[in-house]
Design a protein that fits this description.
Elements lengths: L10 H4 L29 E6 L3 E7 L18 E7 L3 E7 L11 E6 L4 E9 L12 E6 L16 E4 L22 E4 L1 H8 L3 E7 L7 H15 L7 E7 L4 H7 L14 E5 L9 E4 L2 E4 L2 H6 L14 E4 L1 H9 L6 E3 L3 H10 L3 E5 L3 H8 L7 E5 L16 H8 L2 E5 L10 E2 L9 H11 L9 H10 L3 E5 L8 H17 L10 E5 L20 E5 L9 E3 L6 H8 L3 H16 L24 E3 L1 H9 L4 E7 L6 H14 L6 E7 L19 E5 L14 E2 L8 H11 L6 H48 L4 H5 L4 H4 L43 H82 L2 E2 L1 E6 L3 E7 L3 E10 L3 E8 L4 E7 L4 E12 L9 E10 L12 H4 L3 E3 L23 E3 L2 H10 L2 E7 L7 H13 L9 E7 L4 H6 L10 E5 L2 E8 L5 H10 L6 E2 L3 H9 L4 E6 L9 H10 L5 E5 L14 H7 L15 E2 L1
Helix pairs in contact: 8-10, 12-14, 16-17, 16-18, 17-18, 24-26
Length: 1261
């Protein structure tokens, strides 16, 4: 595949070309009788490289005349690149004269040293030139990014030289590593590997010699080949090494999937070839290493554990046990053939799990089982007849033969219960769904219950199913009965939830008290409860979402009563797991224990944990000052006193709450932006909720003032952001009065604690100093802070070479002793004495020289003073010029800043004007009484002529403009219906100018259609929440809150549906029994329980198995409730939808017993009017019920005007009589009925109904 077919002559053929023409070009160094050799006809290549690209310039042979170029008018010949393959380049050289050439161009196909990427490579053509022989440039993208040692596989095929202009000089040279070599390691090629793998198992290390990242693992492989290969179990295994650079074909075959071309330190696989499997499908195993270091060496080495540092005492050795275990899993054959049931049972005694197949493609089956090595063995049978009796529910005869002919895959798992054996794979078998089969096997080979361990964690997480966790304390003898019941309930849950779908099924594990701290993430805290149940997506600590079962508080006591009945506990746990998997349960988080006083007491700081955060903080209607603190913080007494002073100051204000939460034991929501493990104390203002229990409409605001915060600073911060009205002046006075006593005691307590901490630190410091001196240990704090690291490693300080080195000095005298002075050295007397005359001359000469020197110094001093004077004047002048330049520059900058400020102010005013004129949504407040809803919509400076108010039974719309012509609008759908005719609206006037009031909004009064308390105003509450607030003045404070937690009817065979789903269900089902219920209506509890019982038991009743039972939330589906005129009453009506009458449901009263509801269903099973076609049908109608009424109509069913009334009567008499009808003018005598009433009826004047205009006569009874 790598070769390139060339049509022209090769280099060898070109060495003996046809006879040259009679005349040769004068410029050619060859005469017409000479023939160029193959070496002379080699192309000229100049190449350079970077880490990812190779640049090759192609030129024709030099110094020779190519065949066909003797008579050409173009010299030298032109180069044409014909192909770039993944390991070859092909190009040609020839001349194209005006008269044409009789010989084909010369072609070359050169094999590259390594592979390239043809799709990412290109040919850079030279720019237009008078010379057509300009050399093309090949830009080849390397398949493996590294430095090539040479360009061509055989460089004798071309004249190759370096192109230093394109060579990356900074590309480092690569040190080639020797491949693994040992006495029992063979040096393999691709061909020898193929021959060897046909007879025995081969383990091969395939490496590139330039990749040094696998050197340590290759040394370990050499040792493992000696140790493991010397055992009898691996005597038939061959060991070898293969050079991937030299064997490029092997690299293409075995490395195309996992991209082994990338030299990676963490991925150095060993390839295992089996004789019973294709050579192109080897297994891959890793050579793992163990790093050992004794504990004393780690303590004595201060740099141990630093990134990138390798201790001298660290030992690296292969993990022989794991390598032997991984290799032993691959030695058995991939497929085991069984002939009979006895063979299958014998295989099951040797291995734990068996995947058995009949009629499945064996190649697909074997490939699907490759990842299951060590988990299950694969078995297959050619003849399915011996296994017919084993199939669950299998019959005999033709059915058994048909079942045997079909493809079957079954799992015989050792951990499966006897009722589940064998497990039939329900996925696709032709073609075989490999991924689904692997997932199926991995799930069902797991035991129902497993004790948790770190190895089990990785195994369960790799399967991808949620994991149910049960904590049990088996060592507690006092709770043995509860523990056994909990394990039994857990086993029932796991058995019912065993499957492969993550939306329905889970895996199960049991944790003992050693893993109790994991419960923190499920919402519990010390003392941890046992038994306890939770669900997780990942088992690692701090990984994935956690869901803790909501046991009632206190959990340590309520779990005993919960698990008292195993069946009931398993049923409730399964229902909760279903809600979790469907996404209806929020994740659990770490939470402290509930405080002893959970309710807020005014004047005190409320303790908050995560379990109470949603209710007390996020759902509170008061402004909250919330403190996040760590129990290990400094100055804790003073900080506690500060919060107590603030709480006591705000005691008289019910809409101001002071709370705090300890962060090391509780989850902090991300909206606060607090860093994990931070010990800083933070304060937040949390805005109030619109209604109790709802989330706050805005994000909390953090206190950014000075720390530690004072009571006055916190009160000012709360006043700045709170929405409540209170006096900051009075609060500051109260806080100042309380501070003297409270803060005084806090300071005393804090000083005692600080003194104890200081003594403790001094004691620890003294002890560490003693240990370092006596034991020679290293302080970990100093080591991590890099203090004294050089002293610990024995590095001496280099002496200063420039400093003068003094010799040894004389030791000092003893104390009190007097040092002896040094002896004076006697001076030698001059032997020659000068005469007096000579001495006088020398003295005179010395005086003269001194005078000259003095005069010279005076001149130089005068000159220096003059120079200093001039320099001083120059400096003064430069300073004045610099001062002028600075003043000018400052003035220009001030003018520029003034212009910029003016422009910014202009743009700001323009933006404010545009923002002020932009359409806005009007804000409003609302309140309610039992009979009405009152809204107050605010439109500042309203222009009353532009006001437009629309009141519908389910919608409110207000549109208006202010005096500046800015548009305001408000439109939303109401939660429930109102009565527009009894509703009204009026303008609302401002109170700023009572003498000349101006309209600033509109007030609306809406009459409720059903008199009760609404849970919210708008159907889409989140859309209007930012613009809405509660009007506590208009709201009826005495109106009691209705219980919203009334459960709608639920149970087996009874599902909650919407209006659209109900229509689809009624169209596709024979009969649907629907119960419309309001969640605030508590009048139907007893009858709804009987309804659930009737739905649950209807499956076992004759003719009621096809009846569907549904529940509809009448408040959410208000249009459906209004259509059928449903209201909250003691009748608790049920709607019965028939498939033949979908638009006309029957309304029946709720019953006190389930049997009565089922009787109503029986009454409505048959059609309202049965069409009578013949005498047999008439007999069935008249004999099926005590009373039968049959109508004989002259017209057809759709045209007769009497039939609709007849049908309406039949609907009203459901259960009292059975109705039938015949059409087309047929008489009773046609059905064998001889009555004397026919003439009487015919003789009477029968008039058509007044409300019908169509033809057709009356009816005969």
């Amino acid at each position: 595949a790598a070769s390139v077919l060339c049509n022209g002559p090769t280099a060898a053929e070109a060495a003996t070309p046809a006879p040259a023409p009679a005349r040769s070009p004068p410029s050619s160094p060859k005469t017409k009788s000479s023939r160029p050799s193959a070496r002379e006809l080699r192309p000229v290549l100049r190449w350079g490289q970077t880490n990812s690209t190779v640049f090759v310039t192609v030129e024709p042979p030099r110094g020779v005349v190519l065949p066909g170029c003797e008579d050409s008018g173009v010299t030298p010949p032109a180069i044409s690149v014909e192909a770039i393959e993944f390991d070859r380049v092909a190009f040609s050289a020839g001349c194209s004269a005006e008269g044409g050439s009789s010989q084909a161009p010369l072609r070359w196909s050169l094999e590259l040293r390594e592979d390239v990427v043809p799709a990412a490579s290109r040919i850079d053509r030279p720019p237009p030139s008078p010379s057509p022989s300009a050399a093309p440039l090949l830009v080849l993208r390397k398949r493996i990014e590294h430095r090539w040692d040479r360009l061509l596989w055989d460089e004798s095929e071309a004249a190759v030289s370096k192109d230093w202009k394109r060579e990356d000089r900074g590309l480092p040279d690569e040190d080639e590593v020797e491949l693994p070599r040992a006495q029992n390691l063979r040096r393999l090629t691709h061909a020898s590997l193929r021959d060897l793998a046909e007879h025995q198992t081969v383990v091969v290390a395939m490496r590139y010699p330039w990749c040094s990242l696998c050197e340590e693992k290759d040394k370990a492989f050499v040792k493992a080949a000696k140790v493991v290969g010397g055992k009898d179990a691996f005597a038939g295994v061959a060991w070898g090494a293969l050079d991937l650079r030299e064997e490029k074909e092997a690299a293409r075959v075995f490395c195309r999937e996992d991209d082994l071309h990338a030299c990676k330190k963490d991925y150095c696989p060993l390839y295992v070839f089996k004789p019973d499997e294709p050579l192109e499908e080897p297994y891959r195993i890793e050579m793992h290493l163990l790093y050992e270091m004794d504990e004393m060496a780690m303590m004595s080495d201060p740099m141990a554990g630093a990134p990138g540092y390798k201790p001298k005492s660290q030992n690296i050795k292969p993990n022989f046990d794991r390598f032997e275990r991984d290799l032993a899993l691959l030695l058995p054959p991939a497929l085991e053939k069984v002939e009979s049931r006895e063979d299958l049972e014998a295989l099951r005694t040797r291995v734990d799990n068996v995947v058995f197949s009949v009629g499945v493609d064996l190649t697909e089956f074997r490939r699907a089982g490759r990842p299951l090595r060590g988990l299950a063995s694969l078995a297959w049978a050619e003849d399915p007849a011996p296994f017919l009796g084993r199939a669950p529910g299998g019959g005999g005869g033709a059915e058994a033969t048909a079942a045997a002919a079909a493809a079957v895959v079954e799992l015989w798992a050792a951990e499966a219960t006897p009722e589940r054996l064998p497990l039939r794979f329900a996925g696709s078998l032709a073609p075989l769904a490999a991924k689904e089969l692997q997932h199926f096997v991995r799930v069902h080979v797991q035991p129902l219950l497993q004790n948790y361990s770190w190895d089990l964690k990785d195994k369960l997480e790799s399967i991808g199913l949620p994991v149910a966790v049960l904590w049990a304390n088996f060592s507690d003898a006092n709770s043995t009965n509860t523990t056994e019941k909990a394990v039994e309930a857990f086993r029932r849950l796991c058995d019912s939830r065993r499957g492969t779908e993550p939306r329905k099924h889970v895996l199960c594990t049991v944790k003992d008290e050693a893993y109790a701290y994991y419960q923190r993430e499920y919402g519990t805290h010390e003392p941890y409860p046992y038994p306890y149940f939770g669900l997780a997506k990942k088992l690692g600590f701090g990984e994935g979402d956690r869901f803790g079962y909501p046991f009632k508080e206190p959990v340590n006591k309520t779990v005993h009563s919960f698990f008292r009945g195993a069946k009931r506990a398993a049923r409730e746990l399964s229902a909760w797991v279903a809600r979790v998997l469907s996404g209806r349960v929020p994740p659990s988080h770490e939470s402290g224990n509930l405080p002893a006083q959970a309710a807020w007491v005014r004047g005190q700081v409320q303790e908050i944990v995560w379990k109470t955060y949603q209710k007390e903080i996020n759902g509170s209607t008061a402004d909250v000052l919330l403190e996040f603190y760590d129990d290990q913080r400094k100055k804790s007494y003073i900080a506690d006193a500060t919060m107590r002073i603030v709480a006591a100051t705000l005691k008289d204000y019910s809409n101001l709450k002071v709370a705090r939460m300890e962060v090391s034991q509780n989850y902090v929501p991300p909206v606060f932006g607090r860093k994990q493990f931070s010990k800083e104390t933070e304060y937040y203002w949390v805005p109030p909720s619109i209604a109790s229990g709802e989330e706050t409409p805005e994000d909390p605001i953090r206190y950014t003032g000075e720390l530690p915060a004072t009571p006055a600073a916190l009160l000012k911060f709360l006043k700045k952001h709170s929405l409540s009205h209170w006096s900051i002046k009075e609060a500051l006075e109260v806080a100042d009065d309380l501070s003297a006593e409270v803060m005084g005691q806090a300071n005393v307590d804090q000083r005692e604690v600080d003194r104890a901490d200081e003594e403790k630190q001094q004691m620890i410091k003294k002890m560490m100093t003693t240990l370092k001196k006596e034991k020679g240990l290293v302080d970990v704090g100093e080591m991590m802070g890099l203090k004294k690291a050089a002293d610990a490693m024995g590095v001496e300080k280099e002496p200063d070479k420039n400093k003068e080195v003094r010799g040894p000095t004389k030791p000092a005298a003893p104390p009190g002793a007097r040092e002896e002075p040094k002896a004076a050295q006697p001076k030698e007397k001059k032997k020659d004495k000068k005469s007096a005359k000579q001495q006088a001359a020398e003295k005179e000469e010395e005086e003269r020289r001194r005078e000259e020197r003095r005069l010279k110094l005076q001149k130089e001093e005068a000159k220096m003073k003059e120079l200093e004077r001039k320099e001083k004047e120059k400096r003064k002048k430069r300073k004045e010029e610099d001062k002028k330049r600075k003043e000018l520059k400052k003035k220009q900058e001030a003018e520029a800043q003034a212009r910029e400020a003016k422009e910014r102010e202009r743009k700001r005013k323009k933006r404010e004007e545009e923002r002020a004129m932009a359409p806005a949504i009007a804000t409003f407040s609302w309140g309610q009484s039992k009979e009405s809803v009152r809204l107050s919509v605010s439109v500042p400076k309203l222009r009353s002529s532009s006001l437009n108010v629309t009141l519908l039974d389910d919608k409110v719309a207000v549109r208006a403009r202010d005096v500046r012509n800015r548009s305001y609008s408000l439109e939303f759908e109401l939660r429930e219906f109102v009565v527009p005719s009894n509703s009204s609206w009026a303008l609302r006037y401002s109170e700023e100018n009572p003498l000349n009031p101006e309209p600033d909004g509109v007030s609306l009064s809406l009459q409720k259609s059903v008199a009760h308390r609404w849970d919210r105003l708008a159907q889409n509450h989140s859309a209007v929440k930012p613009f809405m607030k509660k009007d506590w003045v208009q709201d009826d404070g005495e109106l009691e809150e209705e219980k919203e937690d009334i459960d709608l009817p639920s149970g087996a065979n009874l599902k909650k549906v919407s209006a659209a789903a109900l229509r689809k269900l009624a169209a596709s089902t024979l009969m649907v029994v629907a119960a419309l219920r309001f969640p605030w209506c508590d009048k139907c509890g007893e009858k709804d329980r009987e309804l659930a019982k009737a739905a649950r038991t209807s499956k076992d009743k004759d003719h009621l198995g096809a009846v569907a039972w549904a529940v509809v939330d009448a408040r959410e589906e208000k249009y459906l409730a209004r259509t059928h005129n449903y209201s909250c009453s003691d009748r608790c009506e049920l709607l019965i939808f028939k498939q033949d009458e979908p638009a006309e449901p029957y309304v029946v009263q709720g019953r006190r017993y389930a049997e009565e509801i089922q009787i109503d269903c029986y009454k409505h099973l048959l059609p309202v009017v049965s069409e009578v076609e013949d005498k047999g049908m008439l007999d069935r109608v008249t004999s099926a019920f005590d009373t039968a009424i049959v109508g004989f109509f002259r017209g057809s069913k759709g045209e007769d005007t009497w039939y609709p009334r007849f049908r309406a009567v039949a609907r009203q008499l459901r259960g009292h009589a059975l109705f039938g009808a015949t059409f087309g003018g047929r008489k009773p005598r046609d059905f064998g009925l001889e009555h004397g009433t026919e003439e009487e009826i015919d003789g009477e004047a029968i008039e058509a109904p007044d409300d019908d205009t169509g033809g057709g006569g009356g009816g005969d009874d």
